[in-house]
Amino acid sequence: MSHAHQNRETRQAQVLTWCTDAFGHEEANSLPQRAVRLLEESIEAAQSAGVSRETARRLIDYIFDRPPGELGQEIGGVGLTLLALAEVAEVSADGEERREIDRVLSKSLEHFTARNKTKNDCGFLAAAAPIENATRAQIDAAIQKLHALFKANPGWENAEVDYGICINCARFIQKEIGGRVVGYHTQDNPEAEIGDDGHDFLLVGSFLVDVWAYEYTCGRPLYDLINRGDEALVRRLYGPREKWQEVKP
After folding, report:
1. Where are the beta strands (DSSP E) in the chain?
2. Which of 23, 39, 50, 91 is the most buried (most CB within 10 A)?
3. Is 196 within 8 Å of 186 (Cβ atoms)?
């Protein structure tokens, strides 16, 4: 039976099985590594549609100067824009996907294992940077470590670092697990409930970490931005994401 006749959920699971067989379990199931491969194919599609190198570079800088979005929604956005591109190009997105899966599965695993190794050797192995994908346990451990400092010295008397300042809390967690410190000025983000003049906190993977707000104002030290309930609460406490800006060291 041709794989082209299977429904998309079946094809999705089958493609991951193929990735595991070709690339190994760790790399196949690495979220940032799968995203690197999506980026590669997206750039190739844009190139074939006439997008210039200069435009692509400017767009990458524009995107990475903003806080990351919610992964599920962004995947939906990829699907939506793919359908629009396919319609303008007068091709069937579903049909092309089915044909590509059949083409790939008709070749040997060794062929793609070798191609993948060549790309990895060129420096495109995102799995080699695990600090960008800290586990929940690592994040929890970092939060507990900072919380212990609050309990030991709540007034920060004679402390080397005053963690009563929000950016110092964010930098402490960043040093432990990676991520990006972001923030806002209240005048630019009036919908946010946290911070008198402004506020800084940490984004790592799909999580927002804010021990300072937990200790001094309200809320929790950790939010999962993929969780719809957490996302709505974050929107109320921190305002819209487009108002957040990365805080450079």
Report:
1. 180-185, 198-204, 207-209, 222-224, 245-246
2. 23
3. yes
| pLDDT for 132 | 45
What DSSP string describes 182-240? EEEETTT-TT--S-SSEEEEEEETTEEE-HHHHHHTSS-SEEETTSHHHHHHHHHHH--
* Amino acid at site 107: K
The pLDDT tens digits for 166-189 are 999 999 999 998 889 999 999 999
Q: Please answer whether residues 31 and 133 qualify as being in contact, where contact means their C-beta atoms are separated by less than 8 angstroms.
A: yes
Confidence (pTM):
0.52
Q: Is 191 left (phi over 0), alpha (psi -120 to 50) or beta?
A: alpha
For the segment 39-73, what is each residue's pLDDT rounded down to a tens digit? 999 999 999 999 999 999 999 888 877 777 788 88
CB 120 within 8 A of CB 26: no
Residue with tokens 């410190």: 181
